[in-house]
Amino acid sequence: MAALPVQNTPAMRQVRQAYSKQIKPWEAEQVLQLAEALLLLPGMRWIGYELIRFHAGAFGSLEAERLERLGQGIDRWESVDTFARVLSGPAWLRGQIPDELIYAWARSPNLWWRRAALVSTVALNAKVDKGPGDVPRTLRVCRMLVDDSEDMVVKAMSWALRELVPHDPAALRAFLREHDRALAARITREVENKLRTGLKTPRQARQ
Question: The domain that contains 161 carries what CATH number?
Fold first, then answer.
């Protein structure tokens, strides 16, 4: 990575892809240990997560305890979202971790774990993850955090709810009505925009 002339995400991902091919024969535990070592290096956390995600044995071996170990140190939106979108959400979608683990994160005093709970729901509903749409579990997490005013949680709540639009708009509208007084105005605005136009922030009509 240090030898790259330009250290941006596409260039770094090419290196990761090359190493994913090299470590394909490795045992799951070897890959997990490599990823844990990368957590200690600045800017390399996401590389470790992707090495796991694209190694069938390593990803398939993830369970609650190991997943939480891999999540230690998430302290900004980039690390949280990478953790939740690459590891915890897909693992939850595939039934590798229990619902209660995600619900426990939603109850955490740490705002970053609360955000991780919400972002983990995205995999249940996003087309890119082949999520079939899981309105009950998504809304359960959202209800647990409906009164949370932390900005990073509010933004994640909007994201989680918007992913439900293709699956059950009626249930989503009912949720908005039920929690109208508690929800941040940003959430209501962005979700209603998505319901109405298909976009979070539609362009204003030209004058």
Answer: 1.25.40
Q: Spell out the residues 6+ positions from residue 114 whose beta carbon is closer than 8 angstroms to its own.
A: 105, 106, 107, 108, 145, 148, 150, 153
Do 191 and 111 belong to one domain? yes
* C-alpha to C-alpha distance for 156 and 115, rounded to whole angstroms: 6
Q: Are 122 and 157 in contact (CB under 8 A)?
A: no
In a domain, 6, yes or no: yes
Full residue range of the structural domain in which residue 41 is found: 1-61
Determine the Cα–Cα distance for residues 86 and 66; give it in Å rounded to an integer.
14
Asked whether the beta carbons of 4 and 16 are under 8 A apart, the reply is no
Q: Tens digit of pLDDT for each residue in 110-119? A: 999 999 999 9
Task: Answer whether 0.90 is exceeded by the pTM.
Answer: yes
